[in-house]
Design goal:
CATH topology: TIM Barrel
Pfam family, one: A_deaminase
Distance between the termini: 25 Å
Organism: Geomonas terrae
Mean pLDDT: 97
Helix content: 40-55%
Function: Catalyzes the hydrolytic deamination of adenine to hypoxanthine. Plays an important role in the purine salvage pathway and in nitrogen catabolism.
Number of strands: 8
Bound molecules: 6-chloro-9H-purine, zinc ion
Number of domains: 1
Oligomer: single chain
Strand content: 5-15%
Structural class: alpha/beta
Strand order of the largest sheet: 1-2-3-4-5-6-7-8
Keywords: Hydrolase, Metal-binding, Nucleotide metabolism, Zinc
CATH superfamily: Metal-dependent hydrolases
Enzyme class: hydrolase
Length: about 325
Amino acid sequence: RELPSILNRMPKAELHIHIEGSLEPELIFEMAQRNGIKLDYPSIEELRAAYAFTDLQSFLDIYYAGAGVLQTEEDFFDMAWSYLNRAKADHVLHAEIFFDPQTHTSRGIPFATVIGGLDRAVRRGREELGVSASLILCFLRHLSEEEAFAALEEALPYRDRFIGVGLDSGERGNPPEKFARVFARCRELGLHLVAHAGEEGPADYIRDALDILKAERIDHGVRCLEDADLVARLARERVPLTVCPLSNVKLAVFHEMHDHNLGRLLQAGIAATVNSDDPAYFGGYLNDNYAATFAALPELGAREAYQLARNSFEASFVAEEEKKGWV
Ligand code: ES4
Ligand code: ZN
C-alpha cells in the first residue's frame, strides 16, 4: 500500500549511472541541431523506437552513436545537469557518476571539454540542488590496456576532479586481467577502484576483479549466484554490488523482472544496491528501478527498502564522517 511512497521518498544514493546513458532522445535531438549533426533517425519517436535491445552489445552500439552529439563543454554540462535534477526528484542525496572519456577523445573532443562540463554540473548540483556528486572515469574494456593508460595520462592533470576509475563496455572476451597494470597504477595514485563484472561475463570475472584489479565494489555482479564460494566471500567481505534491475531486463540478463535475483542477493547477506545504469535507454531513473523491482518481487518489503537505501550510503565513497549524517 504505502510501500511505493516509501520507496519514492526515502533518501538514497546512486552508485551506478553512466552519464552518457542519461542522455534523453530530446537532448540528443537538441544537441544534434545546435551542433549541425545529422542523425540517422528522423524523429525523437523513431530514435526511441530503436531502443529495443537483445543483449549488451546491441545496446552499446546505439549508446555510443547517441553520445556522438556531445561536442561542447556546454553539452556535457547540460547532460549532467539534467541528470542531477532527475536525481534530486528521486531523493538521491549522493551520486557517483561514471563517464567514458575515450568515447569522446577518440572523436577529437578534448578531455578538458568533457571534464570541464561535467565538473561544473557537479559543483552546481552541490550548491543549488543540495545533491552531492562525484565522478568516476571508466576505461572502455573493448579497447586495449595501452589505450586505457593513454586515457589515464590525459586525465591526470584533472586528478582532483574525479574520485576513482571503473571498467565498462563489452564484458565477454575482455576479462579483468587485461587491465591489471593500469588498475595497479590507479591504485598507487590513490584512486578508488570499481569494475563491471558478472553482468554478461561469468562469476570468475567477479573474483578476478577483486583479486587482480583490487576492485572495492562490483558493478552488476548478479552472476555471482552461480558460484556459492564467491557468494559467501562477497557477503563475508561486504563487497557491495551495484545492481541495475531495469538494465538487466532490457539487456536480457534476466528474462523478466520476476526472475531477477535481487531478493536472493540480499537474503545471501550481500550488500546489494539498486541503480539505474543508463536511465534514458532502459526505461527509467532510480525510483523507477525501485518501483519495478518491488512490484515484481514479493520477497521485497519495507525492511528490504530500508536495507537497500542503507547499503547505498554504506557502499559509497564518501567520508565516514559524512556517512554518519545519512545512515
Ligand atoms: C553499460 Cl549496462 C553497461 N554495461 C557495460 N558497459 C556499459 N556502459 C554503459 N552502460
Ligand atoms: Zn553500467
